[in-house]
Design a protein that fits this description.
The chain is of the alpha+beta class. Helices cover 27% and strands 33% of the residues. The strands form 2 sheets. Strands 8, 9, 10, 11, 12, 13, 14 and 15 form an 8-stranded mixed beta sheet that branches. α4 crosses α6. The two termini are 28 Å apart. The model has no long low-confidence stretch (mean pLDDT 92).
């Protein structure tokens, strides 16, 4: 099945509105009860997007002939300025000088996967500076936004007074996400991952322990590089290896405060589901990091215990 992104046409409006209704159902089922209420987004809003040449559909079809393709997603991609972004509260934009594009109204059917990544690839191929916002109850969209490297910047208010969480990302084309099994790793990649783990867990934390524990061979390894430098990494272990359940461990960010740790964790959760069909994920978290792991959905599931001389707690994410 091939998927393309093309500019929306007036004849697509009916199909687009059906996608919008499906997206609303996803929101309500996930606990987002207030976003896209009172008939929004209306046909008039979608028509306005198309008149500005900023409305786009994702279309699936068989073979090279896409003329009979099914519209499975929609989004708006519009140039600055965005009027509701003129005032930002409780934060600041990454920059407030350069022009940018804004992404609005991402929607798809629930049985279609990878839409958000397709949208990001398309949009960043047209502009390196992008802003986006979402409702505080839209946890699905927040996770997707943060997973793709956006930085939370503050609060904006829509014309009707509704509050939204605002994000921005500069794509400098040096940021690369990597995901491989142990067998797929090159010698240089494996050496660098083990070097960073040793640098942080052994040297920085002054802790003598056996880092290479024979769980790496069965794990999925994830890391993020900026200008070819590893800034975050993690591994996902199948059930029955490091822990009884599927687990995430060796979580490191070498540049703190930039969102790289949260980004790698969201990718790791996705990998646990994709590769090991996880319905529960466990971690052994250092006590000071409890709040960090809670921010991606984990909850404490044990009392404090000592591991390699450092206080730890077990935390669990049930999917």
């Amino acid at each position: 099945m091939n998927r393309i992104i093309r500019e929306a046409k007036p004849t697509d409006i009916t199909d687009i509105m059906q996608v919008m209704e499906a997206a609303k159902k996803i929101m309500r089922q996930s606990g987002n009860l207030h976003q896209w209420a009172d008939g929004y987004p209306s046909e008039a809003v979608i028509i306005s997007d198309t008149e500005k040449h900023g409305g786009f559909v994702l279309e699936e079809g068989d073979g090279e002939d896409q003329s009979t393709g099914r519209i499975v997603g929609y989004f708006a991609f519009l140039p600055s300025p965005e009027p509701t972004y003129s005032k930002l509260y409780n934060g600041k934009w990454l920059d407030d000088v350069q022009s940018y594009h804004v992404i609005h109204r991402i929607a798809s059917y629930p049985d279609v996967h990878g839409i958000f990544s397709d949208v990001m690839d398309f949009c960043f191929s047209h502009d390196a500076n992008i802003r986006i916002d979402t409702h505080k109850d839209n946890r699905i969209m927040q996770h997707n936004i943060e997973k793709h490297g956006f930085t939370y910047c503050g609060i904006i208010y829509l014309a009707n007074g509704d509050e939204r969480m605002a994000y921005q990302k500069h794509n400098n084309n040096d940021s690369v996400f990597h995901q491989k099994s142990f067998q797929e790793l090159t010698v240089d990649e494996l050496y660098e991952l083990l070097r960073v783990r040793s640098e942080v867990f052994v040297v920085e934390q002054n802790c003598v322990y056996q880092d290479m524990d024979n769980d790496d061979q069965k794990s999925i390894h994830l890391w993020l590089t900026i200008a070819n430098k590893v800034v975050a990494l993690a591994r996902v272990c199948p059930a029955g290896t490091h822990m009884k359940e599927v687990s995430i461990g060796r979580v490191i960010t070498t540049e703190r405060g930039k969102g790289y740790g949260k980004q790698i964790m969201l990718h790791a959760i996705e990998a646990a589901v994709k590769h090991f069909h996880a319905t529960q994920i466990d971690i052994e978290a250092q006590g000071y990091a409890k709040g960090f792991y809670e921010s991606v959905g984990f909850q404490q599931s044990s009392d404090t215990f000592m591991l390699d001389g450092i206080p730890h707690i077990r935390m669990t994410l049930r999917l």
